[in-house]
Amino acid sequence: MKSEKGTNVGKKDLKEKAHYTPPSTTTLPAPQVPESDASVLHYSGGVGYYAVHIGTSALVANATLELIVQLYRQQNNGGNTWFYEHTVTAEEASAQKAVINIHRAILNPNNYETVTLSYEVSGQTSSGVTFTLAE
């Protein structure tokens, strides 16, 4: 539940992405959430963070990394797409890994049923990973 070394992201840090359509082809691996319970993210009262790990050789210093957070209501009946822009540091580029900590308050199962996480960097897009949201 604690954030890992990386960037902490709360609701105020996200920007709405209107009319987002995921690309039909992806070239980068999906982000990972090591603390997830298989394909479930637990809200846990909205306290703490989930660390989203992005590992790819496409991370280069000063590139813009865009984390895309697609939240869906029941049966994919509407939802919201948000994004967070992060400038890749030299340390992240060298390690070929960035960690973005998403505050659990964003992932409220009373508002949304699922979340799909993906990212874009250096003109390339990752595949998405989908989680069910639960208490």
TrEMBL record:
<protein>
    <submittedName>
        <fullName>Uncharacterized protein</fullName>
    </submittedName>
</protein>
<feature type="compositionally biased region" description="Basic and acidic residues">
    <location>
        <begin position="1"/>
        <end position="19"/>
    </location>
</feature>
<feature type="region of interest" description="Disordered">
    <location>
        <begin position="1"/>
        <end position="35"/>
    </location>
</feature>
